[in-house]
Amino acid sequence: MSDDWDTVTVLRKRPTGGAGKSSQAVSAARRAGAAVETDKKYGGGGNRQHHTAKNTASLDRETEELKHKTVSMSVGRAIMQGRQAKGFTQKDLSTKINEKPQVVQEYESGKSIPNQQVLGKLERALGVKLRGKNIGEPLGPRGKKKDATA
């Protein structure tokens, strides 16, 4: 029974066709005339969390200045005058329209990008038109429109 268990040793050679990652292995394969394929991965091999986009250079070459449209100063003045007429501070007004005080400050200074929802809230809270042609005029009463035939 002890004869059934013979010792067998298997020797294996390392595979030679594997992907050599060192520069020495790549240059040796090129000298030997083997086909070498190298791929450079974008963003690979780094532990960067914040990296620039691929088109940064094209953005740098751009000559036209692109800016977001901001609220006009006439709207900012109308908000300020309406707020002062009602006796509100910027914080009171922001609480009334459920926005941050910084939003009201940016609209008054003309630095904010116009948002129709916020402008609507401000119009209703202040009772002043902030959109359209008659900016700064009192907001008309809400209700049915007048008949055109009468």
What is the global morphology?
elongated
The level of helicity is 25-40%
Low-confidence stretches: none
Helical run tally: 6
Q: Name the average pLDDT.
A: 78
Tell me the β content.
under 5%
**Rg:** 36 Å
Distance from first to last alpha carbon: 119 Å
The total strand number stands at 0
The helix-strand sequence is: HHHHHH
What do you see in this structure?
By secondary structure, this protein is an all-alpha fold. Helices cover 38% and strands 0% of the residues. It is built from 6 helices and no strands. The chain has helices at 23-32, 56-61, 73-86, 90-96, 101-109, 116-126. It is elongated and about 105 Å long. The termini are far apart.
Short synopsis of the structure:
The protein is an all-alpha fold and 150 residues long.
Give the tags.
elongated, 0% strand, 150 residues, mainly alpha
What is this structure's SSE topology?
Layout: H1 23-32, H2 56-61, H3 73-86, H4 90-96, H5 101-109, H6 116-126
Helix pairs in contact: 4-5
